[in-house]
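Can you give me the bound-state structure? Components:
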Amino acid sequence: MTRIKKLLVANRGEIALRIMRSARESGIKTVAVFSEADRQALHVRFADEAICIGPPPSNESYLRMDKLLEAARLTKADAVHPGYGFLSENEDFAQQVEDAGLIFIGPSSKSIEIMGNKLAAKDAVSKFKVPLVPGTAEPIDDVAKAKKIAKEVGYPILIKAAAGGGGKGMRIVDREEDFQEQMDRAVSEATSSFGDGSVFIEKYITQPRHIEFQIFGDKHGNVVHLFERECSIQRRHQKVVEEAPSSILTPEIRKAMGEAAVNVAKSCDYYGAGTVEFIMDENLNFYFLEMNTRLQVEHPVTEMITGIDLVKLQISIAEGEKLPFKQEELTMHGHAVEVRVYAEDPANNFMPDIGKLKTYQRPQGNGIRVDDGFEQGMTIPIYYDPMIAKLICHAETRELAMDKMIRAIDEYEITGLETTLGFCKYVMQHKAFRSGQFDTKFVEKYFKPEVLASTPQEDEELLAVVLSTIAEPKPVAKETTIAGGTESKWKKNRL
Ligand code: ADP
Ligand code: ADP
Ligand code: MG
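Here's the bound-state model for the whole set.
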């Protein structure tokens, strides 16, 4: 057991802040690193110490292992948390942190390496009882052979990059005639994005749901799961709305998937927090997709339904503690939903819309959590992920959580740039989503940008009350005079 005294967070923005908050509660000092674009950032102001690690582009700052390790040395930090994105799934970084005598808050370098490659991962789990999507177990090098396999599997198929991530490097092939062309594209995309052109085939599930399990292991061989999250509302194969629990899992399927997830973790001697992703077809068959060896963006929904602080748990596991609970002691409470607030324009194919947060006011109230890293007046830097915030709501039931989310979105005021908030409200109100009958094709099937089209703005005052992506202006409460009173006791809603 080694107690961590000072933690360097090798990340930025909302996740850096979220990690530092838990560290501070545990009496751990925090070190922020920042690029020149983030000098004024909230994570820098929050930390006990902060070190500038270079110019804005991430490959000159947040991705520079040498600078991060130098920052840890200078500040005498004894542990490093990588957050997500950046170096969080880089086995060399995990190894270098440990070689420098520091604690890496995450799994072993070896586990990251195995699960970092989708084919190596499938190979590792094949010895355990984990269902895999039909397809190839090896990279395709012979097109004729690959076409034969594709025919057996049945079109449509998906060509996927073994080293893929972030929804990139995937190509759907509907018929054999297109195979060669799509394969060439997939290989060149994989080479340019991941520096590794290996691709493989998976059956393309046509009405899939994305269901993932949060798992946790300790360094003593114990592994549990903390239930599922459903992340089927996606654009560009990337999540925008997540919830826990999933609306379609029965206790039996939950048990079977949870056991499979624990087996995936065991197949690579996993410790720390991880996520095992599955895809589910319309007959509720589930298949292992991949494992993410880090904290996930959508981890707060799990925190809300279990009441467990996942970052504190990561820290205690890294210190060498045993898991403080057994599987049968874990229970779920109520329902949680998260929406990702991206600086993107849903009306323009979700293209990034970077700019200044002219107004920025968070919603508040019972069961509402906002994880963000910005304040009014700040500019979203163009160099990094365009996520501004995550808005999470927790209530007794799914219906009530959705209603709370709609209220929270209405209360959230962001002007100066377009965001995904209006789109997320549309999702919350949609019949298919409400009823639980939806899949990863939701956006293609139902979403038309027209539903968010802004009404012409008459003046600056109206502009201020119109949520940038939502058509109707917010209702302004009527001024009312109490009978007999000399002046109004009720002020107009201040917006
Ligand atoms: P995946 O999409 O790989 O299944 P997640 O949904 O958890 O997993 O998303 C991880 C993504 O979060 C990264 O690929 C990256 O685009 C994004 N990201 C990385 N760092 C940050 C950050 N500091 N703030 C917000 N988003 C980030
Ligand atoms: P990444 O590493 O980019 O996160 P994943 O394998 O997790 O890659 O897939 C991301 C998303 O792509 C899934 O959530 C799902 O929407 C879609 N997808 C992946 N594999 C399949 C498949 N075999 N059939 C249908 N959709 C898939
Ligand atoms: Mg994934």
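A couple of observations. The pocket of magnesium ion (ligand 3) is lined by residues 277, 290 (CB under 6 Å). The CA atoms of residues 4 and 78 lie 6 Å apart.
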